[in-house]
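Title: Prediction job returns without error message
Component: structure pipeline
Severity: low
Priority: P3
Assignee: unassigned

Description:
Job completed but the reporter wants confirmation the result is attached to the right record. Sequence as submitted:
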Amino acid sequence: MLIDTHCHLYDEAFRDDFDAVLGRAREAGLEACVMPGIDRSSHESMVALADALPGFAFPCIGLHPTSVKEDWQEELDFVGQHLHDRPWHAIGEIGLDEYWSKDFVKEQMRVFEEQVVLASKAGLPVIIHLREATDDFFRALEDLRGVEFRAVMHAWSGSYELYRRILALGDFKFGIGGVSTYKNAGVAAALERMSTDDLMLETDCPWLTPVPYRGKRNEPAYVRLVAERVARLQQIPLETLASVTSATARRFFNL
């Protein structure tokens, strides 16, 4: 049985064929999915889906870095105000993204650090989105020195050396998705050396679709393609990889 630890199943991309998508996911062996929060605009649809699929779809709350705009304070306040509405399974996805824009880098840093502190106080893990902002990420970790938290690096595509550097700084896991299946993906070489105990599987659907469906809509069932690829890279049976990563996910997210 597999767990998709980063799944935007509430996205409108699944509106027209949701039941079929869910059926394929269950046929592929998916037993649960973790749904990260993005901002206020998608909050209600995510919560509604979690309520409709208890024991299968687990919701999180957080402000995504690309949603940090002029109204960032209102969006951040929303997270704090709703933090105790229900049992969330993580704060996320949160982090830093300097790929699309650098207009709000300072605000992204503040929002990220404040949400990590919120997670620490609430005893929740964090889901970290990091894109083209590695230096600022390490600066943020320096600012957060002394704050105890556990985190998963979502959509991990870094080198083995960067993996070791991050591991040395705290309690981190690494979410492996469709990028691992891409030709010449650098993360493949890292995965040959990474510990299975540090890994969790994800799709980030409807984005980052794995081969052979790259270029099309991603969906939860494709987490099996990721699992098969990672198992080959780690040279372990698929059943072993599924068992270890699912157990890690259950502990990490309190599923």
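Comment from assignee: result matches the submitted record. The CA atoms of residues 89 and 255 lie 8 Å apart.
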